[in-house]
Specification:
By secondary structure, this protein is α/β, with parallel strands linked by helices. About 45% of the residues lie in helices and about 15% in strands. It folds into four domains: about 120 residues, Rossmann fold; about 160 residues, Rossmann fold (3-Layer(aba) Sandwich), CATH 3.40.50; about 70 residues, Helicase, Ruva Protein, domain 3 (Orthogonal Bundle); about 60 residues, Homeodomain-like (Arc Repressor Mutant, subunit A). The strands form five sheets. A five-stranded parallel β-sheet has the order 2-1-3-6-7, with helices on both faces. The chain has a five-stranded parallel β-sheet with strand order 9-10-13-8-14. It has a two-stranded antiparallel sheet with strand order 4-5. The protein binds adenosine-5'-triphosphate and magnesium ion (MG). The site of magnesium ion (MG) has 3 residues, from α7.
């Protein structure tokens, strides 16, 4: 195979030399252009494996080149060179479809990382087959699948918002698996699950002896994900000081392990997710706006299952098949009535709730048919009964305090049942915190 060819666009000779020398050392041939017009005509003349452009050019902006490539040569990865301390333009370029950016003054390590990943990108087959699939016939799911395919090819940070169980992690994994980073690690981290005092060292690593208990050098999550994708789940749970450090890491594309003096360049694609309203948290000064701006370059909204009940049959069929296979039974079929109950249920725990429900049903199931009676949903959600019945269904047969306790108990039990015993999810269903639910469960002596 012949060497990859790059187009580099800049009006500064020094920078052009730096770029072409670095490229040559990496086995990439380069063609040069000094302005927008020249770049366009070169692009029309031949195909390039990658393109690096400065933003400020004598006859216009590098953004025009990004747009031009997006419109006409969508397969060519283009990275932009931004002025020092100009994060706004970098984000803008990513939104336009640039696959990455590098800030001046250019650090050779970072430049190399960008060149490497763009070469990988241009060599990658359009989509790597994955064992996972995002199911659903709804228009919303069609859009998300198209978006996954599109964003898999660049490096821009993706921000996935959606209720619990809507498939946020699945979407993140697919973006990774369909992209040029697929053969490198996908590291998922739940930001709410790391003890605060360990957070910095978990994310950025530490040097031996940098604090009590640091017995050896340890790589952080960023380094573990190097070349791949870091999935920051529940990003809203990051404490403020970590938010500052994360922002710095994104901007500098490097990490400094605790106790270490030097920075290490990293090449990681960030995908973050949360069910919380970050905009609202920003208003209340709980989440940094500048970080939000950085992580939310490409937003993806994972719709609730209630907004797309039409997806329930295909999801149910898929789960019945896969669960049956897992537990070694022949997959039963579902009657129309059973399916009707499912499609009219308000799954507040979304796809995960559906999956858990079917797991429960199949674990106890005998026979080749799942009928309406087999669908064990909280009474209130049966379509034949009115909503709100779960609360009033507890008879008022004592003082009001006791009555309320009974209602509370019932609601908690229902939520736990729906979450398959998972307290975190049950807390989300109930709109309360893990802690206070755990406390209530103890206090009310719920099993
Ligand atoms: N569209 C879909 N097609 C197939 N499976 C799906 C789909 N959406 C979700 N799932 C499955 O549902 C389960 C929950 O999805 P996932 O863990 O991605 O949700 P989540 O949004 O990350 O939830 P949480 O906020 O609770 O972490 C997983 O087993 C996932 O594979
Ligand atoms: Mg998740």
């Amino acid at each position: 195979m012949s060497d990859p060819v790059a187009l580099i666009i800049d009006d500064e000779q020094d920078l052009l030399s730096l770029l072409s020398i670095t490229l040559r050392r990496m086995g990439v041939e380069s063609h040069k252009a000094g302005n927008v017009a020249e770049a366009k005509s070169q692009l029309d003349r031949r195909s390039f494996d990658l393109c690096l452009t400065d933003l400020r050019l004598p006859d216009g902006s590098g953004m025009e080149i990004v747009k031009y490539i997006q419109d006409k040569y969508g397969d060519t990865p283009v990275a932009v060179i931004t002025a020092f301390g100009d994060p706004k333009t970098a984000v803008e370029a990513l939104k336009l479809g640039a696959f990455d950016y590098i800030a001046k003054p250019i650090e050779v390590d970072q430049l190399k990382a960008i060149i490497e990943s763009s070469i990988r990108l241009s060599k990658a087959s359009p989509s790597t087959p994955s064992s996972r699939t995002l199911l659903g016939d709804s228009e919303e799911m069609d859009k998300i699948r198209a978006l996954i395919n599109k964003v898999a090819r660049n490096q821009a940070p993706v921000y996935i918002h959606g209720e619990t169980g809507t498939g946020k992690e699945l979407i993140a994994r697919l973006i990774h698996e369909y992209g040029p980073r697929a053969s490198n690690p996908f590291v998922a981290v739940n930001c709410g699950a790391i003890p605060r005092e360990l957070m910095e060292s978990e994310f950025f690593g530490h040097k031996k002896g940098s604090f009590t208990g640091a017995f050896s050098d340890k790589k952080g999550l960023f380094e573990a994900a190097n070349g791949g994708t870091l999935f920051l789940d529940e990003i809203a749970e990051l404490p403020q000081d970590l938010q500052v450090k994360l922002l710095r890491t994104i901007q500098e594309k490097s990490v400094r392990p605790v106790g270490e003096v030097t920075e290490r360049a990293i090449d990681v694609r960030l995908i973050s997710a949360t069910h919380k309203d970050l905009q609202d948290m920003i208003e209340r000064d709980q989440f940094r706006e500048d970080l939000y701006y950085r992580v939310n370059v490409i937003p993806i909204n994972a719709p609730s299952l209630r907004e797309r009940p039409g997806d329930i049959p295909v999801l149910a069929e898929h789960f019945i098949k896969s669960i049956s296979e897992k537990i070694g039974i022949k997959a039963p079929t579902m009657t129309k009535e059973a399916l009707k109950i499912l499609t009219s249920h308000r799954f507040s725990g979304n796809v995960r709730e559906l999956e858990n429900l079917l797991e429960r049903i199949l674990a106890l199931h005998e026979g080749s048919v799942i009928d309406a009676e087999d669908i064990d949903l909280p009474q209130a959600s049966r379509p034949s009964k009115g909503a709100g019945e779960s609360a009033s269904a507890v008879e008022m047969d004592g003082p009001i305090d006791e009555h309320l306790v009974r209602i509370e108990k019932k609601l908690i039990k229902d939520a736990l049942k729906r979450s398959g015993g998972n307290i975190t999810q049950a807390a989300e269903l109930l709109g309360t915190s893990f802690r206070s639910l755990r406390y209530k469960i103890k206090k009310l002596e719920i099993e």
